[in-house]
Amino acid sequence: MRIRFDEQLEQLNEEMINMGNMIEASIGNAVKALMKQDEELAKKTMAGDEKIDRTERKIEDLCLRLLLQQQPVARDLRNISSALKMVTDMERIGDHATDISELAVVLSKKPYVKKLDHIEEMAKETMVMLIQSLEAFVEKDLDKAQKVIAHDDVVDDLFEKVKKELIALIRVHADEGEQAVDLLMVTKYFERIGDHATNIAEWVIFSITGQIVA
């Protein structure tokens, strides 16, 4: 019976990794579409969200089967319940990749009025957080999970920097206000991705220690 349970736990890990890879690719493509004003890539990224949603449902079903059929011990129970919580944050990150792609389509219509250096930097930092939070789960790495949480300050600082830049742009170029507002929404989505990566890291810590991060 335990062998079957271990096989299902391994399947859960594999599905979590699979979903993580899909989300990582989705965010990467959304960023590329935004930077290169690639409408076709943005639309392709949006179309891929349904596959992420299906994987989320598959993971949820697997977790519920493990909980109801196997009566897991404390450590396994923490892993399964953490996976259930994490997959919600992962799905929302996928949604934000779609949100960014939708704005990338809108923003592809005319040249940017400013370079997107800080937005690109913010995107890279959120990707680091996402990848490390998922690695922390797979590797059961407490130190890596804690570093993800600390790294959220970097993303928040970049968000404030970009926000100030865009507000200043609106003041100088009022006619470009619509583009500036769309770019501000893009940065807000990246800031939220950082928050979700933080949540994932916090659930990793819970799965390892049993302690809920305040």
TrEMBL record:
Keywords, alphabetical: Cytoplasm, Phosphate transport, Transport
Give a yes or no for keyword Cell cycle in this entry: no
Residues spanning the membrane = none
Under Pfam families, the record lists: PhoU
| Gene3D superfamilies named in the record | Phosphate transport system protein phou homolog 2, domain 2
Q: Where in the cell is it found?
A: Cytoplasm
The primary location reported for this protein is cytoplasm
Q: Which residues form the PhoU domain?
A: 18-103, 119-204
Q: Does the keyword rRNA processing apply?
A: no
Function field? Plays a role in the regulation of phosphate uptake.
The family assignment reads:
Belongs to the PhoU family.
What does the subunit section of this Swiss-Prot or TrEMBL entry state? Homodimer.
Name of the protein this chain belongs to: Phosphate-specific transport system accessory protein PhoU
Q: Gene for this protein? A: phoU
